[in-house]
Design goal:
- This protein is mostly helical and 266 residues long.
- It is 50% helix and 11% strand.
- A three-stranded mixed beta sheet has the order 1-2-3. Strands 4-5 form a two-stranded antiparallel sheet.
- The radius of gyration is 31 Å and the shape is flat.
Length: 266
């Protein structure tokens, strides 16, 4: 079905289904034009085009099945070989660029030359099993780059061991390792007071503390807890929760405080 007028486009998009389906009809002969009669004489060009189509189809299949651990056994071997060789060419290209930057006669250049030779030999004697392994390895490398890094966090058990009388039994401790110094300073400031820490975790980009009394609030303890809570929050907004770097060039939002290097760390 081909839509050739503005009225037909609007009908297809806006009309009831019964009316839109009436547009499913052959194109009139007078509107069709022959653009070529002879077969293409460039066999190499046709072969390259077919290879690209196979490669695109194979990539589509891979993406659709990326949640599965193994390769789909129904993928034709020709597509497997095309994908594997594409990965090999990409890896060879990377190493050639690296060798150009470091120099062929350097130790690093010699190592890269050996790797390039191995990749070439692997491409010459490619079988289906090896092709599947190459594709799986290539996909794993891509997945590792796309997957967000996980942030190292403070061990709650170590905090409880260090401050045994300060944390409530059901206290929540969920803090990135970059805020270790800030958290320790806060706990050291209140450890001799009649208070308990019920929550220590990231909230709205800052280190959020909830400090309560062990019994009834004493005026001095209340003031100290309020001061420490506010100071901890303010300090954490200037420090990367992942690495502890303090910088005005931080990448932070209302959801997290990070330096530029760890902006995407979760």
């Amino acid at each position: 079905m081909l839509l050739t007028t503005e009225d037909e486009w609007r009908t297809w998009l806006e009309a009831p289904i019964t009316g839109a389906l009436q547009l499913q009809r052959p194109l009139p002969n007078e509107m069709m034009k022959v653009v070529a009669r002879d077969a293409c004489k460039d066999a190499d060009c046709c072969a390259r085009s077919a290879s690209k189509l196979h490669l695109l189809f194979g990539l589509t299949v891979l993406l659709a099945g990326c949640e599965r651990e193994g390769m789909d056994p129904t993928i034709p071997p020709a597509i497997l070989f095309g994908l594997a060789r594409d990965i090999l060419r990409n890896e060879m290209g990377k190493r050639i660029e690296q060798r150009r930057a470091t120099g062929r006669d350097t130790p690093e250049g010699a190592r890269l030359t050996q790797e390039i030779s191995r990749l070439v030999d692997l491409g010459k004697d490619l079988d289906e099993t090896t092709a599947r392994q190459i594709i799986a390895a290539g996909r794993a490398a891509v997945d590792s780059k796309l997957a967000p890094q996980k942030m190292p966090r403070i061990d709650a058990a170590e905090i409880r061991e260090r401050y045994p009388d300060l944390l409530a039994d059901d206290a929540q401790v969920w803090v990135g390792a970059g805020w270790t110094e800030i958290l320790n300073d806060a706990f050291d400031a209140v450890r001799d007071s009649a208070v308990v820490v019920r929550v220590a975790r990231e909230h709205c980009a800052g280190l959020h503390l909830i400090i309560g009394p062990k019994a009834d609030w004493l005026g001095a303890d209340f003031d100290l807890a309020a001061e420490v809570t506010e100071r901890t929050w303010s300090r954490s907004l200037q420090v990367c929760e992942t690495c502890g770097q303090q910088s005005a060039e931080r990448a932070w939002s209302r959801y997290r405080t990070r330096c530029a290097e760890h902006a995407e760390v979760r």
